[in-house]
Structures are given as structure tokens and as C-alpha cells.
Design a protein that fits this description.
Structural class: mainly alpha
Number of strands: 0
Number of helices: 25
CATH class of one domain: Mainly Alpha
CATH topology of one domain: Leucine-rich Repeat Variant
Order of helices and strands: HHHHHHHHHHHHHHHHHHHHHHHHH
Distance between the termini: 104 Å
Strand content: under 5%
Low-confidence stretches: 347-397, 462-482, 484-508
Radius of gyration: 32 Å
């Protein structure tokens, strides 16, 4: 740095000391700067104050010389201390050059930047909140810093910022959520710990209603739940548990429909050999169980997706007993939501339109954006082959049962030779229930379902089932067919019309 250059109102001695390699000399210069700025504050000379800050930022903190940058950082902190409560008027000029130093290759300089910002924030307190996103962005990078001293310094700053947020009632959550949504997908362990700790803090503040924005971060939370660190998983479990408690307390304000697909995704495990994935599935299934019970018929448009996730779990062994029980509760509660009113013809069907609108017609733009984000996140964690369902209707006041989608899922499990016995029984119960509750709408699926149902009834694989389960398995098959036969009259031109009569299905 050219020491002959005019840096007034900084004296040559201050300039020389700021450039010194010794910390003690830079500290002496900082004390002189603090004294100088206090004089300008007393004189209400904002022009000179801004001039001092501008010199310290451009000529020192952003200098090419490392010792000059260190001098600039301590000088900016001294300015903030001298300004006191008035520092809020100059925060942009004070904070931005310090945050730039967070990216410095010198770990000592990053540490000094943490120290400087800590002093600036400590003086300004709540006045820093308009700049919160900038601070959060910088801290999220330092949370994963390889240097332990830098990480320690960032943790002190992080705790200070959390204290300020919790005691403030002016925190702008709307502006913060997009940044949170972006950073929550970090794969770095330390960054995840940083993110989940902030969500935990914000969720505990009474004046901050993070539940309204849960649909935007829920997918990211479930991905963090799969972290290899036991501590991170435990913290994430606590956070999700607190959210679920709040959902139970205020179900009327919860956006169930916007989160249903997220749960469907995470109820399906990509790799069942990994413990974190088991935890994700159990947690998602527990949430799904509560959603069905609390939201009721609101979840019916998502029923095909829910069944895709739930039905395979019914055949789990005792190693996944909790998941199996939660899935069974989901299945039972969802089945009870289907009522005879779902068999009523809709106005659009009477007028000749299809029963289920296309994705483009039924899905709002905001939900489409959300689904794009979810699909991207699935691919990033190996979930690309998992079923993802769009509701049959999204903006109609009356909830529509996605009957075609349900039948497609049930038919798939009947045809899949790897389907477990308890899953096959549940499928038969579902078909029986649908024929009882929605006979008119189920009629059009009968031709496609009947061949496989007959095969299932006489399936010799029943011999492999333990004897104690045989009566139950047979009972479900046998009790299913009489109601079906009573409503099924083959069209004379159909395959069954040519080959069978109703009586031919009844064996002596």
C-alpha cells in the first residue's frame, strides 16, 4: 500500500499501524479510529464518518495486502463500537466488506472477519435484521470451514444472531424462507447442522409462524433426517416432532394438500438396507397417519400415491414392526374416507368430460413449481424411480376420489408376483370396499380386474402360507366375490359375455 497517499481524516500514524503485521499495533490504530469517529458522532458529522468507513473498506479491508485487510477489519469494528446505536445508519457499508473477507483463502483473516462482524452485530443488535439474509449466507459457509478456529468464531457469531432473532418481533420470515429452502438441500454435514439448528430456533419463537412455510422445507427436512450423523438425525427428529405437535394443535391452519406428495415420496424407501432410510420411512408414515386422521377427505385426491407407499409396508416382518403398524393405520383410515357419495356422477362427467382433469388443468402454478423441486430432490438422493402422484383435482371446492388411480395401484399389486400375502389381502379388501361403496364407478373396471381376481382366488401359492393365516386369506377371497358377482352382468359382446355366465363362477 502507498503510505504517501492521503487517507485523511486518518492520520499517517493510524495508516502505518493498520498496515503493520503485529496485531498489537493494529489494535492501537483501532483505538485511535474509535476516538476519531466518536468525535465525528459528537459533531453529527455523518459525511466524515462515511468517509472513514469508505477508506477502511476500499483501501484496507479489500486490499491485496493481507496485513492491510486485517487492519481494515479491526478498523471497521472500531467504527461500529464508536457509533453505538447510530451504527444502524451505516450497517451496509460496515457489513459488506467484512462478509467479503469470509471468502479469503487465509484462515487467520477469515477468523478476524468473524471477530469484526461479531463486534458490529453486538453493537447494532436488532438493526442488523434487515441484513439477515446476507449474514445467514455468510455464516452458512463458515459453518463448514475446515479451520477449527474459524468454525469456533462463527459459532459465537451464530449464537449472538440467534439471540437477536429470538428477542425481536420484526424478523422478516417471508424474505428468509427462499434462502432457507435453497440451503436446506446442502449435503455438507456441518452446513446441515447449521440449517437444522436455525429451523429449531425459529420454530420455537412464538411470534414466528414457521408452520405456514413448512411445505417449502419439509422435503429438505426429511433429507436431513437421512444424514449419517446421529446427532443431526436426532436434532432433525426433534424439529419434525415439534412441527407435528403444532399441526395437531392447529389442524385448521395446516396446508395438508401441499405436503401430501412430499410424504408419499419419503414413505417409499430407495435402499431398505440403510438405517437412516428406515427412520425416514417410519417418520413419513407416522406423519401420513396423522395427516389422514386430521385432514380427512382432503387427502383423497392423493389416495393412489398413499396406497403405493402404504400397501408394500403391510407385508413387513417384525424388524419393521412400527412402520408396518403405522402403514396399517394409514390404510384403515384411508379406506374409511371412501363413502357412497364418491359414487355420485359429477357434473363434468354428465356433460361428457373426463372424470379426472389433466395435470395442466388441475394443478396450480405454485404446486407445479413445488413438484419440479421435489422431483429434482428425488433424483439427487436416488429417489428417481419412486412413484409421485398429482392430485386429480386441486382447485375445486369438492374433493374428488382418484378412483382410476387407486384401481391402477391395486391391479399392479395383484399382478406383481413379489407382492406379500398381507398386501394381497389388503388389496382384496380395498376392491371389496370400493365395489360396496362405489359400485357404479367400479363397474367400468370389472372386465380388467376379473381375470386376475379369479386367478387370485385359486392361487396355489396359498399353500406356502402358514396354516394359521389360511382361513383369513381364503375368507377375504371368498367374501369378496359374492358382492362383485351380484353387481356384475357381462355385456353380451364382452369377453366375459361370450365365455361365462354369473352361475359359472359359483363352484359347488
Amino acid at each position: 500500500m502507498n503510505t504517501e497517499k492521503d487517507f485523511s481524516p486518518l492520520t499517517p500514524n493510524i495508516v502505518r499501524a493498520l498496515n503493520d503485521k503485529l496485531y498489537e499495533k493494529r489494535k492501537v490504530a483501532a483505538l485511535e479510529i474509535e476516538k476519531l469517529v466518536r468525535e465525528f458522532v459528537a459533531q453529527n458529522n455523518s459525511t466524515q464518518i462515511r468517509h472513514v468507513i469508505q477508506i477502511l473498506a476500499s483501501e484496507f479491508a479489500l486490499s491485496q495486502h493481507p496485513h492491510s485487510r486485517k487492519g481494515g477489519l479491526i478498523g471497521l469494528a472500531a467504527c461500529s463500537i464508536a457509533l453505538g446505536k447510530d451504527s444502524g445508519l451505516y450497517l451496509k457499508e460496515l457489513i459488506e466488506p467484512v462478509l467479503t473477507c469470509f471468502n479469503d483463502s487465509d484462515s487467520r483473516l477469515r477468523y478476524y472477519a468473524c471477530e469484526a462482524l461479531y463486534n458490529i452485530v453486538k453493537v447494532a443488535r436488532g438493526a442488523v435484521l434487515p441484513h439477515f439474509n446476507l449474514l445467514f449466507d455468510g455464516l452458512s459457509k463458515l459453518a463448514a470451514d475446515p479451520d477449527p478456529n474459524v468454525k469456533s468464531g462463527s459459532e459465537l457469531l451464530d449464537r449472538l444472531l440467534k439471540d437477536i432473532v429470538t428477542e425481536s418481533n420484526t424478523f422478516d420470515l417471508v424474505a428468509f424462507v427462499p434462502l432457507l429452502r435453497e440451503r436446506i438441500y446442502s449435503n455438507n454435514q456441518y452446513a446441515r447442522q447449521f440449517i437444522i439448528s436455525w429451523i429449531h430456533v425459529l420454530e420455537s419463537v412464538p411470534d414466528i409462524n414457521l408452520l405456514d412455510y413448512l411445505p417449502e422445507i419439509l422435503d429438505g427436512l426429511f433429507q436431513i433426517l437421512g444424514d449419517n450423523s446421529k446427532e443431526i438425525r436426532r436434532t432433525c427428529e426433534v424439529v419434525l416432532g415439534e412441527f407435528l405437535k403444532e399441526i395437531k394443535k392447529t389442524p385448521s391452519s395446516v396446508k395438508f394438500a401441499e405436503m401430501a406428495n412430499i410424504l408419499v415420496i419419503h414413505c417409499q424407501v430407495a435402499d431398505e438396507t440403510k438405517l437412516p432410510n428406515d427412520l425416514i420411512q417410519l417418520t413419513a408414515m407416522t406423519w401420513m397417519r396423522e395427516f389422514i386422521q386430521l385432514a380427512g377427505r382432503v387427502v383423497l385426491p392423493y389416495s393412489s400415491g398413499i396406497l403405493t407407499a402404504v400397501l408394500p409396508c403391510l407385508s413387513y416382518d417384525d424388524r419393521k414392526k412400527n412402520t408396518k403398524e403405522a402403514a396399517s393405520a394409514c390404510n384403515h383410515s384411508l379406506m374409511k374416507l371412501v363413502t357412497p357419495e364418491d359414487d355420485e356422477e359429477e357434473e363434468d362427467e354428465k356433460s361428457g368430460s373426463t372424470g379426472s382433469p389433466s395435470k395442466e388443468d388441475s394443478q396450480p402454478k405454485t404446486e407445479a413449481d413445488s413438484n419440479d423441486m421435489l422431483n429434482a430432490s428425488q433424483e439427487s438422493v436416488g429417489f428417481s424411480n419412486i412413484s409421485f402422484f398429482t392430485p386429480a383435482t386441486a382447485d375445486r371446492p369438492q374433493v374428488t376420489l382418484d378412483l382410476d388411480g387407486i384401481v391402477q395401484v391395486l391391479d399392479h399389486h395383484l399382478h406383481d408376483s413379489s407382492t406379500g400375502m398381507m398386501t394381497r389381502i389388503a388389496v382384496l379388501k380395498w376392491l371389496y370396499h370400493l365395489y360396496i361403496k362405489t359400485p357404479r364407478k367400479m363397474f367400468r373396471h370389472t372386465d380388467s380386474l376379473f381375470p386376475m381376481l379369479l386367478k387370485t382366488l385359486s392361487d396355489e401359492s396359498d399353500e406356502s402360507v402358514p396354516k394359521k393365516t389360511m382361513p383369513k386369506a381364503k375368507l377375504d377371497g371368498e367374501t369378496f366375490f359374492p358382492p362383485l358377482l351380484s353387481i356384475y352382468t357381462p355385456h353380451p359382446e364382452s369377453y366375459f359375455g361370450h365365455c361365462f355366465s354369473v352361475n359359472s363362477f359359483i363352484t359347488p
